[in-house]
Amino acid sequence: MTFPSGAITGDATVTAVRPHPDGAVVVLDTTPFHPVDHTWPDQPGDIGTIISAGEEVRVIDTMMAATENGTDLLIGADIPVKRGTDGWTWLVAHVIGAGSSLAEGSAVHALVDAGRRLDLSRGHTACHLASLALDAALADLWHKEVRPDPLGNPDFEGRANESSFIHANGSVDRYRLGKSLRKAGFDSETLAATLAEREQRANVQLAAWVAAGSASRIETAGPGITDMRTWHCTLPEGEAAFPCGGTHVASLADFRSITVQLAQPDAQTLVMTTTATAV
């Protein structure tokens, strides 16, 4: 896979074609397409085109695939094990419609929808920055020592996040404010009483980071889809790094602004909506 470097095109060879409810799935020996992760589906899979011998085949989704025996290819939610489980081979499945002439051995050119990729990358980078800004904005609500985040603040994100969804130029994160978080030393009552102040703190921090225009990158431990990938961003407060399987912009100079809105639909839930605006 080549998407961690920002690649959106590449030449490849078809290694497998299998039936799929939407038509077929195609596996390539190398691909710039980013797949949605079946265990933590935060960033949607890429869409785009596979071109072969003048035929343009639309890729309508990209998903994780796995096989234990080399023959049966399981896709997405049908995969019964976690990514990287020993004895399984992990692949990227490109979902296409019916009627294509693509076959094993076909030489192809893969082309990701660049505009959508950029919008999702912008949303993913903004999501990570927002989580760090939220940790900083809530730091004084902890009354016990907890594991720090990459910038040294108490890791609210790591302790409380129960779901994250990346969309074009933004994200939505949900946090659980339950009994276990209170036992860990978090003051949920003060959060509820000062929510607007916490939101303002996070947005001031995000504005400062956007103004710094820091570089953003993905480092990989290898070329395979299950090899560790880590997002890095050198902020004024220090180096931020998260394990991350998604895609990101190359610089915070790509943003005009990143803002968050905080809401509590009930006493047990915090929702953070992040919005990124491009330059």
Account of the protein in words:
It is a single chain. This protein has 279 residues and is α+β, with helices and mostly antiparallel strands. It is built from 5 helices and 14 strands. The strands form 3 sheets. It has a 6-stranded antiparallel barrel with strand order 1-2-6-4-3-7. A hairpin with a 2-residue loop joins strand 13 (255-266) and strand 14 (269-278). The longest helix has 24 residues, at 114-137. It is elongated, with a radius of gyration of 20 Å.
- Please provide the ordered H/E string of secondary-structure elements: EEEEEEEHHEEHHHEEEEE
Overall, the morphology is elongated
What's the count of strands?
A: 14
CA-based gyration radius: 20 Å
Q: Main beta sheet: strand number and arrangement?
A: 6 strands, antiparallel, barrel
Give, in spatial order, the strands making up the sheet with the most strands.
1-2-6-4-3-7
Mean pLDDT across residues:
96
Low-pLDDT regions: none
Q: Please, how many helices?
A: 5
What's the helical proportion of residues?
10-25%
Structural class: alpha+beta
- First-to-last CA distance: 29 Å
Strand residue content = 35-45%
